[in-house]
Each structure stands twice: as structure tokens, then as C-alpha cells.
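It is worth pausing here to work through a concrete case rather than discussing structure prediction in the abstract. The textbook approach is simple: state the sequence, then state the predicted structure, then interpret. We follow exactly that order.
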Amino acid sequence: MKKTFMLAAVLILGASVSFAQVTPEAFIGILPAIPNNVCSMKMAERNQYISRIDTIMQLIDNEIARRNEEIDANSSTEEQQALNNVASQYGLSNDDIKKLQNEEGMTEEEKNEIINKALQNKHNMTLDETKKFDKMTKEGKKSWGEAYGTEKMADVQTDPQKSQEEQYQNKSLYELTNIQKHIIDSLKAIESKFAQQISDIDNDPDAKVMLDNIAKWDKEALDLMGETDNEGMQKMTELENKIKTEKDKYCSKYTPKYIDILKKYESYTKSSMPVCYRIEAISSRLTKLQTGVDLKHEPGLVGIGKIADYVHLLQGVFKYNLLKD
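Step two, the predicted structure:
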């Protein structure tokens, strides 16, 4: 059965492949429905369902690993592009960049020389001036700021178009960073709420009482193993019935709560896909503004990660069913 599902899943995912891209929506398409009869399912049925979930998780892990390998393969080229762009922006030479790439072999004087050069080219400042600024009084910083502002105004008059571009870039960086932080914080808040709800189930004092009862009766039953007289066998039967009743009670009380959380988490996961794509788009735009590099990463990695989080929770759907059959 596992091999059959694996083949079907590969075929479904294959239908979504374009230039080796597998979309988050393709994984959503092979997710199984959450079972409603968790407490009455036999062990064989549970194992079959979990096997299917494990297969999906394996496919997701493989896809994430493939994407990360591709990102790693492109990282050196993108890093070099970023360095070249920074060099151009700060007026640094190829030798300067090579030295920065081999920072461990540089002396403190060489580092300061390159920093001074970059500050002078970009901000018309020196490293010593920035160090002095930290030690200035409040009045001194105000005077310096006024002088620096006057100097920048002169730059604006000399090259107004360049100034507008820099202002637009700084504004874009600020706005995009705030938008990205707001989106990520919002998703984290929702996920933290789900995590707390699951924690509340697992830490319910009544649950501990039931589990302690089951453990105690299991030990008593183990001590009676080998008893062949009627009294011993009767006690064993009574214990087995008590254990089964308590396990039924445990599953009936907590599984519906967990399934309710799962259903809401499934809806959240599916509805968050457009937001995940937006996070990636913002990250790419920020990288472009900061380094000038256009990232060529396949969209969907963040979304696939969210689906993996849901599938991980789905793997625990039977955790409150303690019956062996």
C-alpha cells in the first residue's frame, strides 16, 4: 500500500513539475482527509494512515533538500555579484574586494584603510570621524548633524536625480522591512496560539490522572502474569477491562479537541500560501535593494515549510489512541 501511494504521489507531483519546480499546492493536493473515527480505528488502519503521512513528509523533505541544495549551489555566484555591486557603490577596487573575502589574512590597518575608503566615497566621512561621533556631547552631535545636512543639501543640488533614487531606496527598504516583519509576526502569533492549545491538551491535569491510572493498572496486570487460578484470572480480566475503559475515555476526551485544532490548522495552512509567496517576494526585493542581486530561487519554499509543519501535526493524530487494536 505504501509503495502504491508513493507511486501515485510521485505522479501527482510530477504533473505539477515545470523546470523541476514542485509547488506547495501540489503537496496540498495529496494531503489525506483528517480521520473522524480515530478512537475506533484498528491498529492496522492507523498504521496504514501514518504510513501515508510519513510518505508525504518524506516527499516534502526531499523537495526542501533539493531546493536548499540549489540555493547553496547559486550562493557563491550571488555573493560575488553582491560584492561587485557593493564595490561599485562604495568605490572599492577588485583588490579591495579580494582582501575583504580573505578577511582573516588582513591586518587591522588594511581593514581600516578599506573602511576609510568606503566611508569617504559613500558618505564623505572617515573612520576616525565616526568614532569621534560616538564620544560627542548632545550639542556636538547636533552641530555635526547640521553641518552634515548642509553638505548633503549641496550634493542634492549637484545631482538631484541620484538623491531621489537614494531616498526612494531607503524608503522602500524601511517600508518593505516593516511589512515583512508585520507579516511574519502575524503568522508566528497564529502558530503560537495553536501550539498553546495543543500544550493545554497535553498538560491537562485530568489527562495525567488517566495516564497514571493506566500505568498503575498495567503494572498490576504484569504482576499477575502467570497466575492460573480463578481468582487471579478474574483479577486480570477486571484490570484489562479497567485499562480499556480508561483508554477509551482518554481517547474520547482529547482526540476530538486535537482534531478540531488540526482542522483549523489545515485551513490556516492552505489560506497562508499567498502570504508565504508574498514573504518570498519581499525578501527578494529587499535583497535586490540592498545588494543589487536578483535572486533566482524557486518560489514556494516558505509555503512548503508551512505544509511540513501541518503534516508533522497530522502525524500525531492517533497519539491519544492508546489501544493496541
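Step three, interpretation. Residues 2-90+159-314 form one domain. The chain is about 80% helix and 0% strand.
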